[in-house]
Amino acid sequence: MNNIMERWFHLSENNTSIKRETIAGLTTFVSMAYILFVIPTILGEAGMDKGAAFTATALSAILGCGLMAFLANYPVAVAPGLGDNAFFTYSVVLAMGIPWQKAMAGVFVASVIFTLLSCMKVREIVIDAIPYDLKLAMAAGIGIFIAFVGLKGGGLVVANKSSLIGIGSFTVPTTWLTIFGIFVVVILMARQVPGSIFYGIVATTLLGLVTGLIKMPTHIVALAPSMKSTFAVGIKELPAMTDPQMWAVVLVLLLVAFFDTAGTLIGLVQQAGLAKNGKMPRLGRALMADSLSMLGGAIMGTTPSATYVESSAGIAMGGKTGLTSLVTAILFGLSMFFSPLLTVVTSQVTAPVLIVVGSLMASSLREIQWDRFEIAFPAFVTIIGMPLTYNISYGIAFGFLIYPVAMTAAGRRKEVNGVMWILLAVFIILLYVLNVLPSN
Fold first, then answer.
1. pLDDT tens, residue by residue, 162-181
2. Contact between 80 and 307 (Cβ < 8 Å)
3. How many structural domains does the chain have?
4. Between β-strands 157-160 and 164-167, what pairing exists: parallel, antiparallel or unpaired?
5. N or C: which end of the chain has fewer CB within 10 A?
6. 349: left (phi > 0), else alpha (psi -120 to 50), else beta?
7. What does pTM read for this prediction?
8. Cα separation of 35 and 52, whole Å?
């Protein structure tokens, strides 16, 4: 066994061991296990079967982590992303009025294009062309958007006729369940407890069960739910791609997926000490693993994959190779037998998770050059555009439209990559399509 592990993952070369990598993989899994409940819950709001979404999410995570392990040998976990998940449900299905089955066709087409772009190394070219500050702004904006979704789902903010939104009612018992969850997760994370988010979900769920705010499940262990309602739906709905509005969806999915992985992957590889001379070894393989995972997830019936920042917890425990990712994949496989627990993970239970994860994503705000207006303003409109329009695509479009113009006005036109001018034209078309074409 040791010889096989050594041959596949080069453990001695990376100064690590099977024991250390196993502990790192377990830590990564515990840190991100919450997605098995949060992602199906969000997709459930789009009208999808939560059980099928649970199975698709788990299988996509197994595929993504496995590919990252064997193709790139990175201690990085890949699974359906919360940012893409939120965009699919709240922007595409609910805001644009596109049925989830039809929207899945857009996910599938975006996945195919995404894989082709990875093969042709276009992803690397575009990623290099996007200003670092806008990448940071996109991550922060999606984080604030996700936090807003959590505040809304937990009852902490509600609609208000006079001011659009207002504070929720503290006479509602389930709102206090959300508040309890927030405090538990915050305390655990402040104490740097690995798996804080997962433990927060468990504690909040137990409180809900004890108080009767959440109904007790009839059983805990069961075979994984069928994916019949979601499997290959995107392929079956491909005729829907004759609608120009669907190509707007594909474009934004591509852009979100483009930038969701890049920054996180770079940061994790640097944390693990795997970067050499400022460059990432096996970057092309890592991007291919991410792309193939996205394609597999689209076929199974879930939203695009992303590199998970929770991988940093496993790396902090000493993970340096793909064996960490392989252990995480195996644990996702075992978790598929606990799908009945989905019924007890309500929106009040997942709300604290979305709020805390949102705060983690917003941490990128500190690195933006706020003292340079031509950079700060495009970043600012990118960030506030997402929660205030309740649409991730609008926030991205606002920033990409303003950045080249602001930089040119500041006498820094030569610093603007030609790709950014192409993206400006693309987003003008995108905004026109999203605003002018009728919802289905």
1. 888 898 889 899 999 999 99
2. no
3. 1
4. antiparallel
5. N
6. alpha
7. 0.73
8. 14
